[in-house]
Specification:
Elements: H1 2-17, H2 19-30, H3 33-59, H4 66-96, H5 101-105, H6 109-113, H7 119-140, H8 142-146, H9 156-183, H10 187-216, H11 226-240, H12 244-257, E1 263-267, E2 273-277, H13 280-306
Antiparallel strand pairs: 1-2
Helix pairs in contact: 2-7, 3-4, 4-7, 4-9, 4-10, 7-9, 7-13, 9-10, 9-12, 9-13
């Protein structure tokens, strides 16, 4: 609790001392765009939730058993989270891809140079203002996710871990957008580069892992080599931990089947047990680290213009 309290006080100090955050939030919330995006976002989630519910109930052979009802709840929860993840992947970069390049296009960047704000405060203000709105979107979708509790099969810890994965994803994609916005001269170029990078994390990594697995031609005979099997597990796990969807699916599988959110045991072909870590932990750590990397790169690019 003390750590959370310190982090909260630090975030409040950053918001109070950074005028860019207030400027961006006021400009965004005064217009109709913010409320339109929120409304469309919730409507899409609601429509997909209804479609998933109708599809699952119609395909079920029996809806009277408790196990079947729990399966409906898990499927509904997973479907809503999947759609929310796609929407966040498209919405989060949109707020930062033009944050800095847009200032140059509108010829207002020179005004920022006359202020006393350092480069890191400018980038941090743009990033925080975007993330606060994305957090609003994530919080607004929690009631739709909570519908699954009526059917069972979903626990509160799944809701919390899902929020962590979505927030880490939005944070990294926002930082990527800020970096390309500082690097590119035009917002269009920054948007294309940002979405290309985000789509690589969303779809490119699973495809790349599948291609590498096929090219490696890992046969059952090779599984007898313990070191090869362990290396394959660590390599595949590290790659899949960079993908939000794979991380969410594997984490939920471990939570449902092994009742764990931390360490779990995996039995090798040789019969030995190998202790592994739930993917949401390395996923969050790597995404926070990558966010810091892109933030530092963005600050360096902005410093060339501000200072």
């Amino acid at each position: 609790m003390q750590v959370i309290s310190r982090l909260w006080r630090g975030l409040v100090r950053l918001l109070i001392r950074n005028p860019v955050v207030f400027k961006e939030l006021r400009g965004r919330m005064r217009g109709a765009r913010a409320f339109t995006v929120l409304t469309v976002y919730l409507v899409l989630l609601g429509v997909f939730a209804v479609l998933i519910y109708v599809t699952v109930t119609e395909s079920s052979t029996s809806v009277s058993g408790q196990a079947e009802v729990g399966e409906i709840g898990r499927t509904l929860f997973g479907g809503v989270v999947a759609i929310e993840m796609l929407l966040v992947a498209f919405i989060a970069p949109a707020f930062t891809a033009g944050a800095i390049s847009g200032e140059r296009e509108h010829q207002t960047f020179e005004l920022l140079r006359t202020t006393l704000l350092p480069a890191h405060s400018l980038v941090l203000g743009k990033l925080l203002s975007s993330m606060l709105y994305v957090v609003l979107l994530l919080l607004a979708a929690i009631p739709l996710q909570s519908i699954a509790f009526f059917f069972g099969g979903v626990t509160e810890i799944e809701l919390i871990l899902t929020f962590v994965v979505l927030a880490a994803t939005a944070l990294l994609f926002s930082a990527i957008g800020a970096y390309f916005s500082a690097r590119a001269r035009r917002t269009l170029s920054a948007s294309l580069l940002t979405y290309a990078t985000a789509m690589f994390f969303m779809f490119g990594i699973p495809i790349l892992v599948g291609v590498v697995m096929l090219l490696a031609d890992f046969s059952p005979d090779d599984a007898g080599n313990t070191s090869t099997e362990i290396g394959l597990l660590y390599g595949t796990g590290a790659a899949l931990s960079l993908n939000p969807a794979a991380t969410a699916i594997i984490t939920q599988y471990l939570l449902v089947n092994q009742r764990t959110t931390g360490l779990f045991s995996y039995t090798l072909t040789s019969g030995d047990d190998l202790t592994l870590i739930s993917p949401w932990i390395p996923f969050t750590a790597m995404y926070v680290l990558l966010t810091l990397v892109f933030f530092i790169l963005a600050v360096r690019r902005v410093r060339q213009y501000v200072e």
